[in-house]
Amino acid sequence: MLELDGLSKKFKQFYAVKSLNMFVERGEIIGLLGPNGAGKSTAISMISSLAEPTAGDVRYNNKSILKKPGEFRKIVGMVPQEIALYTDLTAEENLQFFGRMYRLKGSILKKRIQEILDLVGLADRKKDVVQTFSGGMKRRLNIGVALLHDPELLIMDEPTVGIDPQSRNYILETVKRLNKERAMTVIYTSHYMEEVEFLCDRIYIMDQGNLIASGTNEEIKRILSSEKTISIKSDQLNEQFIAMLQEHPLVNRVMSTDKEITLMVAKEVSMFGDLTKLAETAGIELTSVHNKTPTLEDVFLHLTGRALRD
Amino acid sequence: MIGILLTKIRMFIRNPWTFIIFTVMSIGFALIIGGNGAATTISVPIYAEDNSVKGSTLEKVLKEDEAFRFNWLKEEEEMLEQIENGKAEVGVILRDTSYQLIVGVDSPNATMIEQAIQRAYRAHNLETALLEVSATNAEEERVSVLEAFDKSMNIPAFEMETTSFRSEDAVIYDNTFQTLFGFTLFFVIYTIAYKLQPILVEKRDGIWDRMILSPVRKWEVYVANLVYSFIEGYVQIVIIFCIFRFWIGVDFHGKFLEALLLITPYIFSIVALSILFTAIVKNVQQFNAIIPIIAVSMAMIGGAYWPLEIVESKILITISKINPLTYGMEILNGVVLYGYTLEDLLFPISILVLMGVVMTGLGIHLMERRHV
Ligand SMILES: Nc1ncnc2c1ncn2[C@@H]1O[C@H](COP(=O)(O)OP(=O)(O)OP(=O)(O)O)[C@@H](O)[C@H]1O
Ligand SMILES: [Mg+2]
């Protein structure tokens, strides 16, 4: 359905997005994951035909959208990262305004507005001015506006930043429902991997303008096939024990919290015997030691040496 | 486009305060600084030393003078007192065949008063001469000679007409209109410019992007914004003028509707200027900082605060030629004070329309180039 071919955007001397290749099949939910400044929003604005790429092409049904974006724009719903609403107007008036932009009129518009309000759970607040809304409600309306013309492709740029867990779950469930019930294709940008893991069929991971990994959840995690993660739990963790682990020749990485230590080691290594010995030397008792399934966070750490979020 | 306009009107109804404030400010400033229109003719104390002056043509002509109100006093002292106290700039003592001007403050009015006095004496002398010539004739004839004279006073033998618009010789300065027009044209800049500020907000917040993605054409968005800003600016001027015309009772020398009609090119040019600045600035803060600077300097250079005629600096005069406000003042003064016709005002009108077209084009072009 959609295909990005070597898409690049250069600001002055630096690339915000560099040779991005990507494809989206009809009915998929695609995740675009990356830390702040990775170039997600820049990529999104090129995909949605709002920004002109420095190089590369975006093709919809095998036709470039750069020259004639008209047809493509009709089927795209865009949820921008900022709250793109008139805060002086009520929820209903905002929907009316953007509905008219999409040439909806009269009873059709009215019906559509009601559907959207129900969908995003704001029917009882429709007469309230957006200014008085909570962050989560604004986010929901921000999504609602993008759905007015019933788009085939929904592009969402970090639709859940800075909101309460309830609204967040509501939004995630709504996206899943739209995808299931209306076969809506979704491109979902985020820097929360739980969201992306939960929602997406396939994931693209970006960092500093570059695509560093892509594939299904499982495929990406298989990047870690050469390593495994070991989780150690104990009530008595001390500095000595951690220092000994860090110096151990077979351990690649150590992350520690109060009661848990996560180790990354080569897949074939068995650490069990060594761990018991080290614990004895340090004079502590281990509650549990087990191999963990890797998360996308681990993948990002592996690929960049940095955590996804600060 | 209708949708955009409707939404703008809706938002205006919800928050009309900036509009109201600028309207009230225009009216307030014009009233406080310009006076209420009753006391615009200058009062001149006058004292007749010879009794024969009273009831003569001299008195009649002076009474009919439009620019000055001659205040006939009984005592010479009274007049001197007024001048000493600064209540009057110039006083006049009339004698049968000569006059004396007592100048307290050396003002341009003194010359104009003297001219008025001289005019009156010419008429008076002419009449006396005529009477002498016809003295020998019968009473009847004398009356008819006088009647003929009266007639010829009303219909001058030859008429002088000033056709050059920029003629230096005839400057009419009327404080009421100066401040009314000046402050109206000044404050309306704010009203118009701030109505285009939403473009910047919409771009910042991503609302603009939403409109770009929708089937609405971009020219519709621009036109809706420009038209709306124009309408609000125009409505403000209409309200201010109506208040002065119908409530305060300033007659526009019968040119009320003409004034309202011919000021539209000025509004157009200010809308255009605003869209140009909207395109040049980087963000809303810059826009808010720059508009007052533009408005105030335009008002100063363009003669909104004081008449351009008293400005002597060549540089300022030159700059004023590229200032829409200069032409706005020219149009209003021209229509109302000088009674110019549309034809006479074709020059300032064409300049404003030209400025408007060029700046709108440039503004939209810059905005488009920056955005992509
Ligand atoms: N108009 C612009 N001019 C110059 N640099 C820009 C511009 N827009 C974005 N950038 C830069 O490009 C890089 C990528 O920005 P982008 O907004 O795409 O990141 P992002 O992945 O969306 O980040 P976030 O999670 O914070 O939204 C950043 O370093 C940003 O500073
Ligand atoms: Mg972003």
Order of SSEs of chain B, N→C?
A: HHEHEHEEHHHHHHHHHHHH
Order of helices and strands of chain A: EEEHEEHEHHHEHEHEEHEHEEHEH
What share of residues of chain A is helical? Answer: 25-40%
Quantity of strands of chain B, as a count: 4
Find the CATH topology of the largest domain in chain A: Rossmann fold
Question: Order of strands in the sheet with the most strands of chain B?
Answer: 2-1-3-4
Overall mean confidence score, pLDDT of chain B = 84
Strand order of the largest sheet of chain A: 6-7-8-3-9-10
How far apart lie the N and C ends of chain A? 35 Å
**In CATH, what is the class of the largest domain in chain A?**
Alpha Beta
Class inferred from helices and paired strands of chain A: alpha/beta
**Overall domain count of chain B:** 2
Work out the radius of gyration of chain B.
Answer: 27 Å
* SS strand fraction of chain B: 5-15%
Q: Total number of helical segments of chain A?
A: 11
Ligand names: adenosine-5'-triphosphate, magnesium ion
Fold and architecture overview:
The complex is a heterodimer of chains A (310) and B (372). Chain A is an alpha/beta fold and 310 residues long. Chain A has 2 domains: 2-220, 3-Layer(aba) Sandwich (Rossmann fold); 225-304, Alpha-Beta Plaits (2-Layer Sandwich), CATH 3.30.70.100. Chain A has helices at residues 40-47, 70-75, 91-101, 106-119, 135-147, 165-182, 193-199, 217-221, 239-247, 272-282, 296-304, and strands at 2-11, 14-24, 29-33, 55-60, 63-64, 76-79, 153-157, 185-190, 202-207, 210-216, 227-233, 251-256, 260-266, 288-292. A 6-stranded mixed β-sheet of chain A has the order 6-7-8-3-9-10, sandwiched between helices. Chain A has a 4-stranded antiparallel β-sheet with strand order 2-1-4-5, covered by helices on one side. The two termini of chain A are 35 Å apart. The model of chain A has no long low-confidence stretch (mean pLDDT 89). Chain B is built from 16 helices and 4 strands. Chain B has 372 residues and is of the alpha/beta class. The two termini of chain B are 22 Å apart. Classes of the chains: A alpha/beta (310), B alpha/beta (372). Chain A binds chain B through residues 45, 48-52, 73-74, 76, 78, 80-86, 88-89, 93, 97-98, 100-103, 145-146, 149, and chain B through 2-4, 6-7, 10-11, 14-15, 204-207, 209-216, 372. Residues 40-41, 81, 157-158 of chain A line the site of magnesium ion. Adenosine-5'-triphosphate binds at residues 11, 16, 34, 36-42, 81, 158, 191 of chain A. Chain A: This is ABC transporter ATP-binding protein.
